[in-house]
Design goal:
The protein has a four-stranded antiparallel β-sheet, with no helix packed on it. 9% of the residues lie in helices and 34% in strands. The chain starts with a helix and ends with a strand. With 56 residues, it is mainly beta. The chain binds zinc ion.
Length: 56
């Protein structure tokens, strides 16, 4: 199911569930990150898009 995979919030490296930083929601920015620091996903309301960062 491709649709489900789009909403899957897990790290592509270690497969752990991403942590949601609630403090960022106050300014309209949503950041989810891997607890091990491999991956970060940030939602920009102004751009209406996600920015993904993968740490190598
Ligand atoms: Zn990870």
């Amino acid at each position: 199911m491709t649709i489900i995979s789009l909403f899957k919030d897990t790290c592509p490296t270690c497969k752990q569930t991403l942590k949601h930083d609630k403090s960022e929601a106050l300014i309209g920015r949503i950041v989810k990150h891997c607890p091990e620091g491999h991956y970060e996903k940030e939602y920009h309301p102004a751009l209406e898009t996600f920015v993904e960062t993968i740490q190598h």
